[in-house]
């Protein structure tokens, strides 16, 4: 489903779930504009999404999240929140300068206690790879590196040195 139509569905459902009519939005929007949004004929600005959500009595991210869930068939709220959490952590992370910490300290610093902490979702794995120092990645046992290469459908299996030979195939999201 197109995101504009998913937003239309989310807006209409949130409005009705809170017992509001289109007329209840008269102070922030015309009834015609609201109707246009609810039919998916236009997309609102972020400012308008914020005002609409406030009028409904919900956080604007709730409205946007609901829209996104409607647009992606089969996506669960838990998997979406996990993806968002990883992406925000990745964006907000501070890159250590080289030589600040050894591999063990770096592993603890990024929350990698064991190889079981390595994410299994390919997109999350790419984010993990992008924020994990090479010194930590080179210490991953070959058996775990093989599992990672299967997750990413990498044709060349890792060597006995772990994942280092497939590092070049792992790219950060959007790269």
Describe the model.
The chain folds into two domains: 3-71, lambda repressor-like DNA-binding domains (434 Repressor (Amino-terminal Domain), Orthogonal Bundle), CATH 1.10.260.40; 101-175, no CATH class. It has nine helices and no strands. By secondary structure, it is an all-alpha fold. 53% of the residues lie in helices and 0% in strands. α1 (3-17) packs across α4, α3 crosses α4 and α5 runs parallel beside α7 (122-131). The radius of gyration is 22 Å and the shape is elongated.
Essential attributes:
175 residues, mainly alpha, 434 Repressor (Amino-terminal Domain), 2 domains, disordered C terminus
How does the helix and strand content classify structurally? Answer: mainly alpha
| Helix content range | 40-55%
Q: How would the global form be characterised?
A: elongated
Task: Give the N-terminus to C-terminus distance in angstroms.
Answer: 25 Å
So how many helices?
9
Total domain modules: 2
Strand content: under 5%
Radius of gyration: 22 Å
- Pick out the low-confidence regions: 98-116, 154-175
What can be said about the biggest beta sheet?
A: none
Number of strands: 0
Mean pLDDT: 73
Order of helices and strands: HHHHHHHHH
């Amino acid at each position: 489903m197109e995101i504009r139509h998913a937003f239309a569905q989310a807006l209409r459902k949130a409005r009705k779930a809170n017992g509001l009519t289109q007329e209840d939005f008269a102070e922030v929007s015309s009834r015609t504009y609201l109707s246009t949004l609810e039919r998916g004929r236009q997309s609102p600005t972020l400012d308008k999404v914020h005002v609409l959500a406030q009028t409904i009595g919900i956080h604007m991210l709730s409205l946007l999240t609901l829209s996104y869930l409607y647009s992606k068939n089969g996506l669960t709220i838990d998997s979406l929140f996990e993806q968002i959490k990883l992406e925000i952590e990745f964006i907000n992370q501070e890159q250590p300068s080289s030589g600040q910490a050894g591999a063990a300290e770096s592993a603890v610093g990024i929350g990698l206690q064991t190889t079981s902490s390595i994410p299994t979702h390919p997109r999350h794995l790419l984010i993990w790879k992008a924020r994990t120092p090479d010194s930590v990645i080179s210490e991953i046992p070959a058996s775990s590196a093989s599992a990672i290469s299967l997750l990413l459908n990498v044709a060349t299996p890792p060597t006995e040195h772990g994942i280092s030979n497939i590092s070049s195939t792992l790219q950060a999201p959007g790269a």
